[in-house]
Every structure is written in structure tokens, then in C-alpha cells.
Design a protein that fits this description.
heteropentamer; A mainly alpha; B mainly alpha; C mainly alpha; D mainly alpha; E mainly alpha; A: mainly alpha; 0% strand; B: 21 helices; 2% strand; transmembrane helix (chain B)
């Protein structure tokens, strides 16, 4: 019991990202409304961002901006003092990608609404079936 | 210093930006800039391939940083021919579809060119890069532009495109998650570096999960049955111009990525010895081939038929890659190159036909051999290649695939391939039967009846024949391609 | 960093996510999505990823939400689920 | 499967996890020396992995383009044929006129202001506050761009904030007002121009005989040490990113909120 | 035996292919047909120019690109290929002339298409004759299948469509599903696919595998129409008669038979077949086909259908000859390619001429026709003699050698099959000629006088009939070529 609690506590970020991913996937697959699906998609993407940031986290370290002063800027930098910057870099890119995808998805949703007058997938499907 | 790899990828990007700016100033400049960009890219890819032939594998360090710190383009025997095929096919399809774009898009044509170029940039970048995360970014570029391109089409195109977007994003997210797992376990994103670090971790569940996630993501994007749900809608409702660009390239580049992941990131030693998925995947591929063929058979429209042929072809390549012997890998890689040409030829021909009639339903195709002999001639060559008739290139890759299947003892895959070839014969000859006969049933207009030839625009027909000639040329020289590129790549 | 706060934010994140996908009003869903993004931003700031937090604040909580609202305004708030 | 795999993960926040031991320390320990940029995230983003970032910018660009492509309705004729009510307010008297048929002459005088059909009187306070705030936000955004080397931030964040400030104008006034401030044409040119700046800096490096995006190559021309040149190179590309992102955000917003018509927004 | 590297085989193959663009763009029928003749003459000239050297035991070689590592597209002109190429290119010219008469006589549609695919089909035939390895052979075999499809379905009616489907199903299906895997297995086992005079499989396969491969090949090469893969052939008789004549008496079916002969000798090798007793197996299959086809032919009333079943039987003579595995038998089989071609093409020409002139398709309506069309029916008689194997028809020579071969291999059963089937042949051919000359015509056609088909039709059939007779007296060069080929493959 102790070990399981420990396991849960030690990796709770990872459990969270999995549950967020599941929420996102559920919304994308089970929801009928297109905007809901898009929200689900974004939640899925942010879950992965959460995962990456969790990789980068380091106990007892500080943000990855090197302390320096003009006079003596060349003392050795110890990596252990700073949080891993690479996942942050990657996730900046991923956030940008997600907002770009969001923009395109919403644009498509608006187009569909203009054409079908609804955002519910089943209603659109019905219309398609009636007038192919 | 050899800057070809940089030009290869940057040229279409720069051209895309220039077009987007020029669109507001002088519209007539857009098309020449686009051709220039892709032309430069194509020439650079030839340069890259030539260098690979003489020097073998080489690296281009972006920003001058050595990997794994920086990002490097890695060009080797495997991706050099893919680069040539992708940039060449993109150039051909751009030139071919100009009229279609100008007619359908009107004032938005420059935007369309820009999107096309960006999509090609993404695909070329994916092919050339040596960094797993960079691949994701480029994948997203080609996907986002791909969504926009597929959305321009008939009434249902936006719906198909939104579905494509949702599924595509799931695929890309899976890939990203897989790469994240790999990074967590190894601390690097560089493919070559990963392959050095991974053997120590082969027993790990996390690595296995990463492999599965990456594979699932790629398969979603490559439309391997049963993950193909987005493809038929997206490619059959999209504008012909976008279908001509995306259908030949997108799935093929994803198959290339799969090969890269299997061979470079995870070595065959891991894929085939540590985990034993090949039995399952080859079965899946066989099912994909059969299902794709059968669904193609059920269609009454040329375009939808072609779309399902693409699904079946993905099964060919995935199966070949997973059969797990040299011959089958050779077949898969060769088929990748051939399929770019075959699909290009097929979709260009469809675009040419569709330009002259309302739909590509079979019943509308009557008498086409008389009215559009050149387009149909090229379509026949493409069909021969897809069926697998020598000297068209499709035969030779099928040869290796079949041989690989026999070597691996996978007779189900062998049977699936043969079955699909047979179905392809039926598919295309059903089509030719329609197209051969003019509307009236018996003894047509006789020797003296005059039939007006009503061909597609010259640029389209010329490009179509360029693709058809490519099919023959690759067929005749497939031995050299195998000897000079594919064999060293598999060493 | 204080793990209780961390955990509380995480819980809020999940709650916001579930709420955003279940609420029967698209405008509300958009706003809840904004809240979700903001919580994530706090979380990342807490994890030391300041750059990411900054970006998430401006993109996720700011621009994305505006995009959602704009889109919902242009279409409909109605949803069946 | 994911849950199972998680058991195999290194513990959360473990400094000895492999992710922290391979490449990351090199970034941390060398970034400042080699690029004179204390914010390691910025250094990695815009220098070590600048190739990634260039394509990230291209992603933004293509998203803007895609929205424009999907939504923008350009044929003006069609718009006018639609039977649609248009409202105008006479500024002096606050009287509202409704014009229905498209054939009718559309008044174009300084005394009349076009209104949205869903127009509701807007709060003066909000309007004024926004007007006052906007320049400060923009100033802050510029600071974020320029100071990305030292503090969190950089081209992307700055660009988003710049874009957001203009979106704020559109929200508090109406879309027409903001479109006057940021004409579509300008944004349409700026968005690719941002990518061009980025790729252009890279191409300059090639012209100087180094690899693409190797800012060290610019040292000779700038007359500085390679480290400082790298730092400056980062600044240049950050500006490119900011320009592109700002323009794109506005394009996407304008198209989303007006469903492509650019006539009336939120 | 010298190997002479020369581009001539390639030129011979592409001679007719090269004129297709001209044919397509030709404005007037005369120009189009002029070019057809020109190409035919050039092709025949090239083939003839290689004849002396081949008769001298030399071999012409030409290799194109490497298509699969270790396998090139290559041509190799040896005695066997030369024999077949000579037959095909000679008869092409004759058939072209006949086609002109037939097509113009009936004012058929789409003649340009017809001549184009005709030319392509001939290129493929010559290519198959000169193929140096299995892949090249397969390539031309497939091209021939596709090029003949539009010819078979030329009439474009429902019947033609159904026949076309059947044709493709058997021929392409057989080659894709059966031959292709067989080829791949051969390549895996032996590492090569180049035809060797005495086969290359020896020592690489077990008896079971060899048997399986043999069956895959002989049934897969469905153009040879070995039962039960024969049913496309009668169906394909819906084609215009010149097509049936050239393609289904000469090019297509002979490519099938030739390919089987080539595979038996060049891939398996006579010794291997003898060692595993596969020759007997094939001979039994061929004998069954011969007898069954002959019986079916007896019951057919449609002239072309009767000819079709006759063809099925005659093709199996060729296979039987090769399957006997003795020099005489192989000689007989190969010579039969030539002899049967001349005889059968005469018969088809006659059938076409009868249709053009009198509009008759069925045998029962042909009573007394000989009085109206004496030349045609005379030629028909000679052709029948040749196919039956009676002197003075050229077919006698081949039957003679086949019989000798059967004796040589001490298989009297096959000799009996030969003799009995010849009797059946006589039974289904001679009554036609007898009725045409000696039976009373139906009343309405009694005093019609002489009504021959157009000269373009009659001249070719007269020519081939005379050639059949001439071949009896002077079977050079076919017999020499066949003997040489038989000597090469049996190592004698």
C-alpha cells in the first residue's frame, strides 16, 4: 500500500497527463459537436505539453536563465542548478503548432456552419445522406 | 561547401513567402516564383543524390551546431531518392494543375500556390531531417497546409478536411508523445544519437510504448487500414489540384518516416528480434491490401476508386517493410518511389478527365479514348504500373515484395498481393471498357465518322506524360536504382 | 515549490478540462477552456517553465479563447452534448 | 499501455533522469559562453534549434494563410447582391438609418458611421480604457521581444501580445476600426515578411560562406565577436518571428470573427 | 556457337512499335496502311538478315537495362526464337494485306486503333520470340495480352465485352497469379532467370517443387490453351476475322505455346524433365487436350468456333512434341508452330472471306459454296489438309516428326493419340470442303455465279495456301531451324 501511494505521488504529473489525454481523446471520439471535438483536440495537445514539461522538471533547480553579472560572467555553470531547458523549447513550438491547428480547425468549423447550418456531426451527416 | 540540402528545403519556403507577398503586388509573378522555387528544390535534390552516390551518407548541420546539440539534415542512400521523387513529383503536379488552380481559386490562386509550396517544404524537410522533433514540426506544416488544401473542393470537402484534421492531429500527437518518451528515456532527440543510446534500453516498457505510439501516429497519417478513415473523403472531395499534390506524396512520405523510424531510430534488431510484432503487422497489411482492393471494386467513380487504390498501396509498403528480410525491404522502398509516380500519374489523369466532364463516374467516361487519347494513354501506363505489368515500374517493386513474402514464408501476404493485382486488372479494364466504347452500342461511327479530339490543357497533358515517362524510365532502370541506392541503404 | 499548491492546480486543470468538454453551451466551453489554459499556465510557472508559461498565458488563455469566442459568435452556441 | 509504461519512467523531478544528463547540460553550460544569451531557452530556441523555430514560424504563417484561404470572401459583387440590412448612424444627431436594398446608394460621408446589425452601445469606459491601455501593451510587447535574451519571452510571445493588443482594439471598438489601423494588405505582406526575415538571416549566413542559420557567419559583417553576432542573430530572427506572429494572429482573428467578410466582427 | 552482340533484335522488336505514332496521326487510310507495310517489310528484312548467322549456329544477343539486380531486359536470338519470329513477321505482312481487304470490305469502324494495336501486338510477339530470360518473356507476354484486348473487343457489343473479360481473366489472371510466383520461385532457387539451352533449374529443385512449378507454368501461360485454361479461345473468336487469324492462330496462341516450349527447354531443361518424369505428365495433359478439343470441334457449327477448338488441339501437338523430350519430337513440335500457322491462317482467312463475300458464319449454311467461291474454298481445302497432316500440306512434315518422336521415346500411346486425333481432324474438316464442292446449294443461291471476296482478301489466302503446299516440298528454313533448336536443347 505504501509503495503504491508512493508510486502515485512520485509520478502524479504523469498520471495527470494520462488522464488529460483520455479526456481529450474521449471528447474527440465520443462528442458529437465539432467545437467540442476541437476543444478535445486542444486538451490532448496540452496534455502532451504537460508531459514534456514534467520531463524537464528537476527538483531543487531554478529556471533556466543563467545568473550573471557584467563583471564576472564566466564562472562555471552547473547544469544541476537549472531546469532542463530543452523540453521548454520544444513545447514553445508545440504550443504554436496547437494554436495554428486550432485556427484552421475553427475556420473549417465556420465554413461547415455556413454550409450546413449546424455544428452537430450527426445532423451534418443526415444532410449529406439526404442530398449527396 | 555543399549547400544543396539547405537549398532543397529553403527554396520552396522562400518562394512561398515571396508569393504571399507578391500576391498583393503583382499576381502574375506568383506562378513563376512557385516554379522557380520547386525547380531549385528539384535541382538541389539531384545534386544531393549525386553527392550521395559519390560520398555516401552526409550531414548538413543547421546553424553550424553539431548534432545532437543542433539539428542536422542527414542525407543517405535511403532518403536521397525519396527527396528526388518528392520534389520532382511536386514540380510536375504544380505545373500540371496551374489551370485548375487559376480556374477554381480565382483571386485566391496565389494563396493556393503558397500552401502547396509550404506543404512540399514540410514533406521535403521530413524526408531530410535527422531530428525526431524537427520531423514533428515539419509534419505539422505539411498537415496544416494539407488540411487547407483538402478543404478547397466540392461541397463536402470542408467536412472531410475537418475529419482529416482531427485524426491527423491525433496521429501527430501520438508521434509527439512517443518522441517525448524517447527523450525522457535517453535525453536526446537526434535520430542517430537515439539509435546509439537505445540498445541499452531495449527491455524497457517505456521504449516499447514509445515505439508503438510513434508507429500508431505514423500509420494514422499514412492511412494504413483500419486507420484510413480520413483518406477516402479527404482525397475524393478535395480539389483536383490538391489531390494531385497530396495523394502521391503525403502517405508515401509517412511510409518513409516509418522506414526511418524502423531502420535508423530503432534498429531492425529491435523491431524484429526484441519485439515480435511483424506477424501481426503483416497480417494487418494483408488485410489492408485486400480491403483496399475490395472497396475500390465497390466504387462507381474513378476518383473514389483511385483513392481506395492508395489505401491498398499503403498496405503493400507497410507489409513489405515488416516482412523483415532484405528483399522485402528493397521492395517496400522501391514501391515507395514507384508509388509516388504511379499515384501522380493516376491522379493527374483523373484531373485531366475531370476537367472535361462533370464527374468521373464510370458512366460518364464513354468514348474517352477517342476524345482524349493522350490523357487516356498515360492513364493506361499508370494502370499497367499499378497492375504490375513490366516494363512499368510497379512490376519490379511487386516482384521484390512477392519474393520477400515467399522468403519470409508469409503466404497470406503473397496471396493478398496477387489478389490485389487481379482486382486491379478488373478495376482498370472495367474502366477501359467504358472508355473504349462510345455511347452507341454497336459498330460506332465507322471509318468516316469524325471524332473531335477534346484534350485537357497542354501543360496538364505534358506533365501527365512526364509522369508516365517517369514510370517507364524508373521501370527500365529499377535495377540500377536498387543497386546504387537501395542496396547500400540496407547495408 | 509547494506540492500542495501544485496538486491543487493539477486538480483544477483536470476539473476545468472535464467541465469544458461536458458543459452544454459552446460559449461556456470556450471560456472554460480559457480557464483551463490559465491553470496550465500557473502550473508551468510553478514547474519553472517560465517561457512556456508566458506563452501559454498569451496564447492559450488569450488568443485561443478569443478565437473560440469569435468562432462561436459566428456559428452557434447550441450543442447537444 | 500508457499506464504500464509510466511505471518504467524515472521519478518526477529526478535530477539524474537520463533526459537531464545527455544533451541538456551542454546547453546549460555552454549556451551563455557561445551565444551571449543568458536565457537558455531563447538560446536553444533561436540558435541551437533555430531550424525548428523557423518552421514553427512557417507553421504560424501557414495557419494564417489557411484561415484566410478558407474563410475570406473576396468577391465584392456577391456581397453587394446579398440583401442585407445596413445601419448607419448620423454622428451629429445619433439618428440611426437603415438601408436595405443593395441598389440603394451607400452613403459615404464623414458624418455617417456604419454600425453592425447586432450593435449594442458600448461602454465608454471599456473603450477608453482599451484605448489607453493599448500603447502600453504594445510597448510591453516590444520589450518582451527585445529582452527575450535575458528574461522570459521572445519573438513569439511578443508577437502574440502585439497581435492581442490589436485584437483588443477590435473587441472594444469594432472590426472596421481595427482593420483601418491594420489593413489586410499590410498584414498579408507582413506575415510572410516575418518568415522571410528569418529565412533571409539564414540565407545571409549561407552567403557569408557558413551553413544555413549559422549566425556566427555574421560576425565579420557586424564587426563583433561571433558570440555577440550569435546574440544579435537571435534578435533578428526574434523580430522576424514577432512580425509574422502578430500579423498572423490578426489575420486569423479578423477572418474568424467576421467569417471572412471583414465587415463586422464581434 | 558464337554470341554476336547486335542491336538488330531490338530493332526488329521496335520496328512496328515505332510506326504507331505515324499510324495514329495519319490522315488518310492509304498513308496509314502504307506505313504498316513498310514497317512489316523492315521487320521481315531485319529478321531475315539474322537468319544465315542463326542457321550457322550463332546467337545474337542484346541487353538493355538492368531491371532487377542480376536480371536485364535482354534479347537473344537463337534457332527456336528465329523460327517463331520468322513465322510471325512473314504472316504479319500477309495479314496486313488481308486486314485491309476485310476491314474496308465491311467498312469497319476505328480502323486506326485496329492497325495500331495490331502493330503493338506484333512487336510484343517478336519480343517474346527473342526474349533472353523469363522476365523479358513475361513482359512481352503481358504487353501482348493488353494490346490484343482492344482487338478482341473490336465490335464493342455486349458479346465482345463479355468475351474480352473472359479473355483477360484467363490470360492475365493466369500470368499474374500462376506464372509470376513461379518465376519468383525459380529466381530464388536458381539465382538466375536467363534461359540456358539446357535449362537452369537442374540441381536446384526437388521433384515435388519441379512438378508444382511445371504446372504453374503450363497452366499460367494460358495462351497455350491447355485445358482447362482454354475457354477464352473460343470466346475470343468474336474478334474480326483477321484478328482471329493472326492473333489466335499465329501470334497469341503461338506465343503461349512458344513460351511453354521455351520454359520447358530453357528453364527446366530436357534432362531434368526426363529425370523427374515430367515430360510424360505434360504429354498426358496435352493428349487429353488434343482428344477432348477434337471431339468438341466435331460438334461445333460455327466455322470460327470449330477452327478455335481445332486450334486448341493443334497447340497441344506442339506441347506434346516438346514433352516427348526427344530430338525428333521437339523438332516436330517446333516445326508444327510454323506449319500450323500457315495452315490455320489460311483457314481463318477463308472464314473471313466467306463472311465478307457471303455473310455466312455457320458450316451448315456452306453447302455448295465452293461453286461460288472456288478460290477460297480451294484454299480452305489445302489448309485443311495441312492442319490434318496429309500431304501435300506442310502439316504432314510436322506430324511425321511428331510421330517419329513418339516412336523414339517408345511411347506408343502418344503415337496412337496422334493418329486418332488426325483422324478426328479429318472428320471435322473434310466434310466442310466436301459439302462446299459437292453438296447441292440451297435453292436461293443456286445460280449466283462466282462471288469472290475482294482481291485484298483473296490474294493473301491464296498465298498462304500455296505456301503451305510449298512448305511440304521445301520446308527450309523452318525444319533446319527446328532441328538446330532441338539439337541445342537436347545437347546433341
Amino acid at each position: 500500500m505504501e509503495s503504491i501511494t508512493g508510486l502515485i505521488l512520485a509520478k502524479y504529473n504523469y498520471w495527470m497527463y494520462i488522464s488529460l489525454m483520455m479526456v481529450g481523446l474521449y471528447a474527440m471520439i465520443a462528442k458529437n459537436n465539432l467545437v467540442k471535438k476541437i476543444i478535445g483536440m486542444n486538451i490532448l495537445q496540452t496534455a502532451i505539453i504537460l508531459f514534456y514539461i514534467s520531463i524537464g522538471a528537476k527538483k531543487g533547480a531554478t529556471i533556466p536563465i543563467i545568473m550573471h553579472s557584467e563583471g564576472h560572467g564566466h564562472e562555471a555553470v552547473h547544469a544541476v542548478q537549472y531546469i532542463n531547458p530543452l523540453p521548454h523549447v520544444l513545447m514553445l513550438t508545440a504550443i504554436v503548432v496547437s494554436v495554428a491547428t486550432l485556427g484552421v480547425a475553427l475556420a473549417l468549423a465556420i465554413r461547415l456552419y455556413a454550409r450546413f447550418g449546424t455544428l452537430e456531426e450527426d445532423e451534418i451527416n443526415d444532410q449529406v445522406r439526404e442530398a449527396p | 561547401m555543399n549547400q544543396y540540402p539547405a537549398f532543397l528545403i529553403i527554396a520552396p519556403l522562400l518562394a512561398a513567402c515571396l508569393i504571399a507577398s507578391a500576391a498583393w503586388l503583382r499576381r502574375s509573378l506568383c506562378f513563376p516564383i512557385a516554379v522557380l522555387g520547386l525547380g531549385t528544390s528539384f535541382l538541389s535534390s539531384l545534386g544531393v543524390a549525386a553527392r550521395v552516390l559519390t560520398d555516401g551518407h552526409f550531414q548538413y548541420r543547421m546553424g553550424g551546431w553539431a548534432p545532437p546539440l543542433g539539428i542536422a539534415l542527414e542525407v543517405d542512400y535511403l532518403n536521397a531518392p525519396v527527396l528526388v521523387a518528392v520534389s520532382g513529383a511536386a514540380l510536375v503536379s504544380l505545373i500540371a494543375t496551374r489551370q485548375i488552380i487559376e480556374r477554381e481559386q480565382g483571386p485566391k490562386a496565389p494563396v493556393f500556390y503558397t500552401l502547396m509550396l509550404l506543404a512540399v517544404t514540410g514533406m521535403l524537410g521530413m524526408t531530410a531531417t535527422g531530428d525526431a522533433f524537427n520531423l514533428y514540426v515539419l509534419l505539422e506544416i505539411s498537415s496544416i497546409t494539407g488540411y487547407a488544401l483538402t478543404a478547397s473542393g466540392d461541397r463536402l470537402a470542408p467536412l472531410a478536411s475537418l475529419r482529416y484534421l482531427l485524426l491527423g492531429t491525433i496521429g501527430a500527437s501520438f508521434y509527439l508523445l512517443g518522441v517525448g518518451l524517447l527523450y525522457m528515456m535517453t535525453g536526446t532527440l537526434n535520430m542517430a544519437d537515439l539509435s546509439h543510446l537505445l540498445p541499452a534500453l531495449y527491455g524497457s516498457d517505456a521504449i516499447f510504448a514509445a515505439f508503438l505510439l510513434i508507429l500508431c501516429g505514423i500509420w494514422l497519417k499514412a492511412a494504413l487500414f483500419p486507420l484510413h478513415a480520413w483518406l477516402p473523403g479527404a482525397y475524393s472531395h478535395a480539389s483536383h489540384a490538391s489531390a494531385c499534390l497530396l495523394a502521391p506524396l503525403m502517405t508515401k512520405v509517412m511510409i518513409y518516416v516509418m522506414l526511418r523510424v524502423m531502420f535508423t531510430v530503432f534498429t531492425p534488431a529491435y523491431v524484429f528480434e526484441q519485439i515480435s510484432l511483424e506477424g501481426f503487422v503483416v497480417t494487418l497489411a494483408s488485410v489492408a491490401v485486400v480491403a483496399g482492393s475490395l472497396m475500390a471494386l465497390a466504387q462507381r467513380n474513378l476518383r473514389r476508386m483511385a483513392v481506395y487504390i492508395v489505401v491498398a498501396e499503403v498496405g503493400y509498403m507497410v507489409g513489405g517493410a515488416w516482412l523483415g528480410n532484405q528483399t522485402a525491404w528493397t521492395g517496400a522502398i522501391l514501391h515507395l518511389l514507384n508509388d509516388v509516380l504511379m499515384t501522380l500519374c493516376l491522379f493527374l489523369a483523373i484531373a485531366a478527365l475531370a476537367g472535361r466532364m462533370e464527374t468521373t463516374d464510370f458512366k460518364n467516361l464513354k468514348g474517352l479514348f477517342s476524345t482524349m487519347p493522350f490523357s487516356m494513354g498515360a492513364l493506361v501506363l499508370g494502370a499497367m504500373s499499378i497492375i504490375g505489368v513490366p516494363p512499368a515500374c510497379g512490376f519490379f517493386s511487386k516482384w521484390f515484395l512477392l519474393k520477400g513474402a515467399i522468403e519470409a514464408g508469409r503466404f497470406d501476404f503473397l496471396a493478398a498481393l496477387l489478389f490485389s493485382s487481379l482486382i486491379n486488372v478488373v478495376l482498370f479494364f472495367r474502366l477501359f471498357e467504358c472508355a473504349l466504347y462510345s455511347g452507341d452500342d454497336h459498330h460506332g461511327p465507322g471509318e468516316h465518322g469524325h471524332i473531335e479530339i477534346h484534350e485537357a490543357p497542354l501543360s496538364l497533358v505534358a506533365s501527365l506524360w512526364a509522369a508516365a515517362a517517369g514510370i517507364l524510365a524508373v521501370g527500365f532502370y529499377s535495377g540500377s536504382i536498387v543497386n546504387n541506392f537501395i542496396k547500400p541503404a540496407l547495408m | 515549490m509547494i506540492w500542495q499548491v501544485d496538486l491543487a492546480i493539477l486538480a483544477l486543470v483536470v476539473i476545468c478540462a472535464i467541465a469544458a468538454v461536458t458543459v452544454r453551451d459552446l460559449l461556456g466551453a470556450g471560456i472554460l477552456f480559457g480557464a483551463y489554459s490559465f491553470m496550465l499556465c500557473l502550473l508551468w510557472a510553478a514547474m519553472g517553465a517560465v517561457d512556456v508559461a508566458f506563452t501559454e498565458a498569451s496564447v492559450g488563455a488569450g488568443v485561443s479563447t478569443v478565437f473560440f469566442i469569435a468562432a462561436v459568435f459566428r456559428t452557434t452556441r447550441r450543442t447537444k452534448d | 499501455m500508457l499506464v504500464h509504461a509510466t511505471l518504467d519512467f524515472p521519478g518526477w523531478g529526478d535530477p539524474n533522469a537520463p533526459a537531464h544528463l545527455h544533451v541538456a547540460p551542454e546547453y546549460l553550460e555552454q549556451a551563455y559562453e557561445k551565444t551571449a544569451t543568458p536565457n537558455v531557452v531563447t538560446a536553444v530556441l533561436a540558435d541551437y534549434r533555430s531550424y525548428d523555430t523557423m518552421f514553427e514560424t512557417a507553421v504560424v504563417f501557414s495557419a494564417g494563410l489557411a484561415c484566410f484561404f478558407l474563410l475570406r470572401v473576396q468577391s465584392r459583387k456577391k456581397e453587394e447582391e446579398e440583401e442585407e440590412d445596413r445601419y448607419f448612424r448620423h454622428l451629429a444627431t445619433d439618428m440611426v438609418i437603415r438601408i436595405r436594398t443593395p441598389s440603394m446608394h451607400v452613403p459615404d460621408s464623414p458624418y455617417l458611421q456604419q454600425l453592425d446589425p447586432y450593435w449594442t452601445p458600448r461602454s465608454l469606459i471599456v473603450r477608453a480604457a482599451c484605448r489607453v491601455l493599448t500603447p502600453f501593451i504594445q510597448l510591453f510587447a516590444l520589450y518582451v521581444v527585445a529582452h527575450g535574451h535575458h528574461s522570459p519571452g521572445g519573438g513569439f510571445q511578443g508577437g502574440v501580445i502585439l497581435g492581442a493588443s490589436l485584437i483588443l482594439v477590435a473587441l472594444s471598438h469594432d472590426l472596421r476600426t481595427s482593420m483601418k489601423m491594420t489593413p489586410e494588405k499590410l498584414m498579408g505582406v507582413l506575415s510572410p515578411a516575418g518568415v522571410l526575415i528569418y529565412a533571409g538571416v539564414g540565407a545571409l549566413c549561407v552567403a557569408a560562406g557558413h551553413n544555413f542559420l549559422d549566425y556566427g557567419a555574421l560576425a565579420e559583417w557586424l564587426g563583433t565577436a561571433p558570440e555577440a553576432a550569435r546574440s544579435l542573430g537571435i534578435l533578428f530572427v526574434e523580430v522576424g518571428v514577432a512580425v509574422c506572429v502578430m500579423a498572423t494572429m490578426i489575420i486569423i482573428y479578423a477572418n474568424l470573427s467576421s467569417a471572412g467578410g471583414h465587415k463586422q466582427g464581434l | 556457337m558464337h554470341e554476336i552482340v547486335s542491336i538488330r533484335p531490338l530493332l526488329a522488336v521496335i520496328a512496328s512499335l515505332a510506326v504507331t505514332p505515324i499510324l495514329l496521326s495519319a490522315r488518310s487510310p492509304n498513308v496509314r496502311e502504307g506505313w504498316t507495310f513498310a514497317a512489316g517489310a523492315v521487320k521481315l528484312g531485319i529478321v531475315l538478315s539474322m537468319l544465315p548467322a542463326v542457321l550457322g549456329g550463332n546467337v545474337f544477343c542484346f541487353a538493355l537495362t538492368e531491371v532487377i539486380p542480376g536480371i536485364r531486359l535482354a534479347f537473344r536470338v537463337d534457332a527456336m526464337g528465329m523460327l517463331f519470329a520468322l513465322v510471325a513477321s512473314t504472316l504479319w505482312i500477309v495479314t496486313s494485306a488481308y486486314s485491309i481487304g476485310y476491314m474496308r470490305g465491311l467498312d469497319e469502324h476505328s480502323q486506326t486503333r485496329y492497325f495500331c494495336f495490331f502493330a503493338i501486338a506484333l512487336s510484343a510477339t517478336i519480343g517474346a520470340a527473342f526474349a533472353a530470360n523469363l522476365v523479358t518473356l513475361y513482359m512481352f507476354y503481358e504487353i501482348l495480352s493488353f494490346a490484343t484486348y482492344p482487338l478482341v473487343t473490336h465490335h464493342q457489343d455486349e458479346e465482345a465485352k463479355i468475351s474480352g473479360r473472359k479473355y483477360l481473366f484467363f490470360i492475365v489472371g493466369g500470368s499474374v497469379v500462376l506464372v509470376l510466383p513461379a518465376m519468383i520461385i525459380c529466381h530464388m532457387k536458381a539465382g538466375t532467370l536467363d534461359f540456358a539451352p539446357q535449362g537452369f533449374l537442374a540441381g536446384h529443385v526437388t521433384q515435388g517443387l519441379a512438378t508444382a512449378l511445371l504446372l504453374l507454368f503450363v497452366f499460367g501461360l494460358a495462351k497455350a490453351a491447355l485445358m482447362p485454361m482454354h475457354s477464352w479461345l473460343p470466346a475470343a473468336m468474336v474478334a474480326p476475322t483477321p484478328v482471329s487469324a493472326l492473333l489466335h492462330a499465329v501470334a497469341v496462341v503461338k506465343v503461349g505455346a512458344f513460351s511453354v516450349a521455351r520454359v520447358l527447354t530453357g528453364v527446366f531443361g530436357v534432362d531434368l524433365l526426363a529425370q523427374y518424369g515430367l515430360g510424360t505428365l505434360l504429354a498426358v495433359l496435352a493428349s487429353i487436350t488434343i482428344l477432348v478439343a477434337s471431339f468438341i470441334a466435331l460438334s461445333q457449327d460455327g466455322l470460327k468456333r470449330r477452327l478455335a477448338f481445332s486450334t486448341i488441339g493443334q497447340l497441344s501437338y506442339i506441347l506434346l512434341g516438346v514433352a516427348l523430350l526427344t530430338p525428333k519430337g521437339i523438332t516436330g513440335g517446333l516445326v508444327h508452330i510454323a506449319m500450323h500457322a500457315f495452315g490455320k491462317i489460311t483457314l481463318f482467312f477463308c472464314a473471313g472471306a466467306i463472311f465478307v463475300a457471303a455473310g455466312i458464319k455457320n458450316i451448315s449454311e456452306m453447302k455448295g459454296l465452293g461453286r461460288r467461291m472456288p478460290i477460297t474454298m480451294g484454299a480452305f481445302f489445302i489448309g485443311s489438309l495441312s492442319v490434318i497432316g496429309l500431304p501435300p500440306g506442310g502439316g504432314f512434315i510436322s506430324k511425321w516428326f511428331l510421330a517419329l518422336g513418339a516412336l523414339e521415346s517408345h511411347e506408343l500411346a502418344f503415337l496412337c493419340v496422334l493418329l486418332f486425333s488426325s483422324f478426328l481432324n479429318a472428320a471435322y474438316f473434310l466434310p466442310i470442303a466436301y459439302n462446299a464442292f459437292f453438296a447441292n446449294p440451297p435453292d436461293d443461291a443456286k445460280d449466283a455465279g462466282i462471288q469472290e471476296a475482294p482481291p485484298w482478301c483473296v490474294a493473301p489466302l491464296a498465298f498462304t495456301a500455296m505456301a503451305s503446299v510449298w512448305l511440304f516440298f521445301n520446308p527450309w528454313p523452318f525444319l533446319d531451324l527446328a532441328r538446330l533448336a532441338a539439337a541445342q536443347v537436347t545437347g546433341g
